[in-house]
Amino acid sequence: MNIRRFLSASALYGIGDMLVLAVGGFLLLPLYTRTLSQAAFADYLIVKVNAEILQYVLYFGLLSSVARIYFDYKAKGRQREYLNSIVMFFVVVVLAAAVALEFFGDAAWRRLAPQTASRPYIWYCLALAAANFFAGIGSLWFRLDEQVKRFVTIQIVASAVTAIAAFVNLVVLKLGLNGLLLALILGYMPASAALFYRIGGKLRPAIHRAYVIESVRFGLPFAMGYIAYFVVNRFNLLTLQHYVPLDQIAVFGLAQQIATLITLLGASLGKAIQPIVYGAPEKDAQDLLRSSSNVYILLLFVVSAQVLMFAREIILVVGSRNYLNGYTALLILLVGSFFYSLGFASNLALLYHRRPQVLTVNSIAGAVISAGLGIVLVPRYHLIGGAIATSCAYLVMTATSFILAYRLNRLSYFKLLILSGAAVCFLAVLSALLNLLDWGIGLLILLKLILLSAVVIPVCFVAFPNGIRRLCSSLSGFLGTR
């Protein structure tokens, strides 16, 4: 594997993905939490969750199937015709969903979100789901063609549109939650426009049945997996609405938003690996899987350790002291997110060998664990109970995925999984203990940096001796060319 190419692509993809998450919900969180009340911020989180439900139901896993099947049609020069059929099929699905929501949407909403009004938010959910699909296909197309600079440019423009619209709507026009949701929809427009521009003259109101059937058939296991993932990740947020007030929903939701820092890193690194592995000759795939997974786990561990150690400071930056009672839940969710993101290394191997059904079954098992534990723990332990239920499901899913991948290709990462996982858990406990110290901010940050280095550096050299040397050499060469 070309480590320099991997690092360069990962950095650029990471920048693009980070920008989207930043303006969509992380770096703009201080704007949201300071212009919206905790109750309104909770409503925002609930609308986002319900929009996710529509995405998983309406998408049929098409984004994932396009990421794999696109290469087959690109080799035949029919990629635009293929994407046109996918886009037109989704337009029909959205129209059918609008009719269903008009008649049955309010009743379903009341069951999911009893403390939040259904209208007009139900239509915002549909608009967000539709706009996100078109934007997702548009940005994915650049990624699949490995047009990294264009991908990042689209992400920068989208991020700027969202940030400016959110600031104007929230601060200048004071439109509240409605203004924020409109800003998010506007943020999907640049990538959506790029999609339709690139299809160009091939855009027609025509659907090739064979393209759609193949993609839906391949994507349905992913759709089931996404629904299961939703249960794993969001079921406990929905359950909490029946046991805690809206302000506590906001606290738990903010913790989940911060925890997505780790899953975002995993996703951006993974998306950089996918074209390299999927497009490689079969004889090279095994070596690419091994080398890329080692680098992936190394980078994921280093960043996760830093987020864990400075979790309290992150809460104060993106929220306020009113959100600090979710600190313990945040640490638990960060550990869970690390384990979940670790699973990408094994998931990549399973997907390369076209075994999405295996991942679906694993996700369903995780959903059962999360929901079962949530039903037991949330009524008694509230936020911490929800965090424990979610993280336990993540751990079981990742362990199962590694075992299944090992049986398939004999690539073992158990040493890395156990060592990095133990170090992350230790850092979470250490961070919780340091939070009890009543020291000055400067002295506390210095102590955290020393302890962080004392844990991370030895673990990296013990677990990844060759990876460290190769990474340092590649970084040196990469920076030397700049």
UniProtKB/TrEMBL annotation:
The chain crosses the membrane at residues 12-33, 53-71, 83-101, 121-142, 154-173, 179-199, 211-229, 249-273, 294-315, 327-352, 359-378, 384-406, 413-433, 439-464. Its main location: membrane. Pfam families: Polysacc_synt (PF01943). It is found in: Cell membrane. It is a multi-pass membrane protein. Keywords: Cell membrane, Membrane, Transmembrane, Transmembrane helix. It comes from the Bacteria. Coiled coil: none annotated. PANTHER family: O-ANTIGEN TRANSPORTER-RELATED (PTHR30250:SF11), PST FAMILY PREDICTED COLANIC ACID TRANSPORTER (PTHR30250). This is Oligosaccharide flippase family protein. It comes from Rhizomicrobium electricum. The lineage of its organism: Bacteria, Pseudomonadati, Pseudomonadota, Alphaproteobacteria, Micropepsales.
